[in-house]
Amino acid sequence: MSVLSRTLVLTGALVLAATGCGSNSLESGSSTSPTSAPSSAKVSADPALVAALPPKIKSAGKIVVGVDATYRPNEFLQGGQTVVGMDVDLFNAVAQKFGVTVEWQPATFSTIITGVQGGKYDVGVSSFTINDQRKKQVNMVSYFSAGTLWAAKKGNPKGVNPDDPCGKTIGVQTGTTQQQDDLPVRLKKCTSAGKPAFKELPRDKQDQATADLVSGKSDAMLADSPVVLDAIKQTNGQLQQIGQIYDAAPYGYVVPKADTQFAQAIVKALQELNADGSYKSILQKWNNDSGAISDFAVNP
Length: 300
What we know:
This protein is α/β, with parallel strands linked by helices.
């Protein structure tokens, strides 16, 4: 999500998959957690990193991760029960450096940080753009860079201009920085200029926002650039990009404030994955290598 930050499955026609992004209450998620496809990377554990694991994780032998599995290609459900995606493959490889596995627990996006703070999840991995507000709540470990991008129906029949969306209906996922930081600025610009306000059409799940655009319920939508580009591809040309990518910012893994040592160890794991080529290989698999970074850090 651009300083500030979710799937869509097609079966001939558009079919909605379970995806998620945001209520303000902490949800329990599914009673039986979906599995995750094993990472294709062959990664060996680093004894120094194993030693840096928090006792709870070391004892369990797994990292419990909160994820909004509706944000293709970064994280989404395959076959209704397997969490897959770029973020999934990469963090599975990170976990291998610590000698543990990952239990992926789908949740609505806006509940994940609360879940990490309360101990429901050990880590949050869900395309979280790093920003000052989130850094006050948790530690964030940078691992990727993405911007914001807009899309409209093919041909942009409503003539939406991202810099002047006044009077249009705009789809967005709830709890994302696009909704919380980007759209309010654009709305104020419209009203200050005496133009009609645009109508915001918020959805808990990104695939719902995409479906609204395909069906014509909204005139345009905005989301993280990898997600919009994938939605254009998955809808077989029914959508198109409008404008250019802007506000590029790093994604971060969400780690409890008290687990700074663990957060720093995750940085080391990412550095090792970058050095052996696994990091770039995983991003390339998902056509996301343009977002690769090398300056992994805690709370950059």
